[in-house]
Amino acid sequence: MSADERKAERRALLLEAGLEVIGTRGWSQTTVRDVCQQAGLTERYFYEAFDDRAGLLHEVYGQVRAETVAAVLSAFGATPGGPRRKARAAIAAAFTVLADDPRKGRVLILEGQNDERLQQRRQEDMIANADLLARLAVDYLGETAFDADDAALTSLALVGAVSEVGTAFLAGRLPVSRERVIDHLTDHFLSVLPRPHS
């Protein structure tokens, strides 16, 4: 194994350890020492891979976000049928990533609010997610189906709603089943979908 391969392997171990420690103990209770102990590496290798503790959080957050977006896109593209089936599959895919592994849900939805720099990134990601949702709607319904500004505004509102409901659900503040949450968000999505021009 080359030096670069060993370095990449150590980085991957630290990222997995970061997910475990942040995702189970929380950001405020995570130390570099904890992460290194979990990874079985010394702190020297931590600082070889990351500038600081926040750098690790950003990387772990980025990995979870990328996995979630990929799952949503895959589900949307692979599901046949109309808007309801596609929307429900996409929403369910996000919940599968974030609720089946509660560590990932905690990192993406809950712990991301505890670091000032990551709060800014989350805001930027919400805009990016809204843009993605608007593009999916345009691709599926056709470019002339509705006003582009309506699509952008509605998409941002939907992303915000999903984020808030997801936060409450993952934090255990919603005493309802995951299926109920997914069905409700699907209904909400369809109810505010921009209507075609008459």
Blueprint of the fold:
Blueprint: H1 3-25, H2 32-39, H3 43-49, H4 53-78, H5 83-100, H6 102-110, H7 116-141, H8 148-170, H9 178-192
Helix pairs in contact: 1-2, 1-3, 1-4, 1-6, 4-5, 4-6, 5-6, 5-9, 6-8, 7-8, 8-9
Key attributes of the depicted protein:
9 helices, mainly alpha, 78% helix, 198 residues, elongated, Arc Repressor Mutant, subunit A, Tetracycline Repressor, domain 2
Please give a structural write-up.
The protein is 78% helix and 0% strand. It is mainly alpha-helical and 198 residues long. The chain folds into 2 domains: 1-50, Orthogonal Bundle (Arc Repressor Mutant, subunit A); 60-192, Tetracycline Repressor, domain 2, CATH 1.10.357. α4 packs antiparallel against α5 (83-100), α5 (83-100) packs across α6 (102-110) and α5 (83-100) crosses α9 (178-192).
Concise account of the structure shown:
By secondary structure, this protein is an all-alpha fold. It contains nine helices and no strands.
